[in-house]
């Protein structure tokens, strides 16, 4: 129950970021965090895998946690939102 409350609070913060953004293209990653019901800890793990350019680790993480977030979507969203652009771009090229 506590985890669900924390996730809701995290999603509310994300919604505030989306609502105050001028460019919806640059909030795709945040929009999909909510759409795919990803928690703050899961987001941190995803970003860590991308930071390390650990393609296999990210795929395994997504499968193990039964996230419906597609690997390609994550990387494309990070690129459009200008988060870890170089690393996400390199990972996307190697798929």
Summary, kept brief:
The chain has 95 residues and is mainly alpha-helical.
Strand content: under 5%
Work out the helicity level: over 70%
Put simply, the count of helices is: 6
What string gives the helices and strands in order? HHHHHH
Unreliable spans: none
Structural class: mainly alpha
Radius of gyration: 13 Å
Overall shape: it is globular
Distance between the termini: 37 Å
Summarize the biggest pleated sheet. Answer: none
Count of extended strands: 0
pLDDT averaged over residues:
85
List the quaternary state of the chains.
single chain
Plain-language structure description:
The structure is a single chain. The relative contact order is 0.14. This protein has 95 residues and is mostly helical. It is globular, with a radius of gyration of 13 Å. The model has no long low-confidence stretch (mean pLDDT 85). Helix content is 71%, strand content 0%. It has helices at 2-19, 28-35, 40-51, 55-64, 71-80, 85-93.
